[in-house]
């Protein structure tokens, strides 16, 4: 069983036994299970390379566009993976044959995902 679900069940059972279970407690696990996406770009196709651009998508956050911080959320893709992000999509190098185009500075894009509430 997923650790977050087991923890939620344990807490909910304790509140039920104590007689103070609220409706919001029953919805708590739904709030944790939303998928988040972290889109990272690196110049060379190397997971140790520094992040050149990024975007994070979290369905629990406001949907208004926001500018990313000046510093990337992680120094590399491997650092993001070390904190619980899972690679959902790796770049296909042959699709990135840029030359004299406006987007040749973007680098290689990797999509990572995790569930909200995961470490």
Cα Rg: 19 Å
The ordered H/E elements are HHEEHEE
| Helix/strand/pairing category | alpha+beta
Specify the biggest β-sheet: 4 strands, antiparallel
Please report which band the strand proportion falls in: under 5%, 5-15%, 15-25%, 25-35%, 35-45% or over 45%.
15-25%
List the SSEs and their pairings.
Blueprint: H1 3-18, H2 23-32, E1 35-42, E2 51-57, H3 77-82, E3 86-89, E4 108-115
Antiparallel strand pairs: 1-2, 1-4, 3-4
Helix pairs in contact: 1-2
Explain how this protein is built.
There is one protein chain. The protein is α+β, with helices and mostly antiparallel strands. It has 2 domains: 33 residues; 82 residues, no CATH class. It is built from 3 helices and 4 strands; from the N terminus they run ααββαββ. Strands 2-1-4-3 form a 4-stranded antiparallel β-sheet. Strand 1 and strand 2 form a beta hairpin. The longest helix has 16 residues.
């Amino acid at each position: 069983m997923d650790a977050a679900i087991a923890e939620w069940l344990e807490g909910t059972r304790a509140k039920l036994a104590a007689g103070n279970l609220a409706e919001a407690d029953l919805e708590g696990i739904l709030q944790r299970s939303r998928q988040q996406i972290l889109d990272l770009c690196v110049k060379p196709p190397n997971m140790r390379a520094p992040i050149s651009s990024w975007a994070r998508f979290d369905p629990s956050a406001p949907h208004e566009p926001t500018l990313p911080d000046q510093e990337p959320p992680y120094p590399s893709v491997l650092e993001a993976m070390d904190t619980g992000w899972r690679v959902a999509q790796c770049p296909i190098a042959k699709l990135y044959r840029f030359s004299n185009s406006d987007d040749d500075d973007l680098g290689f894009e990797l999509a990572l995902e995790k569930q909200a509430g995961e470490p």
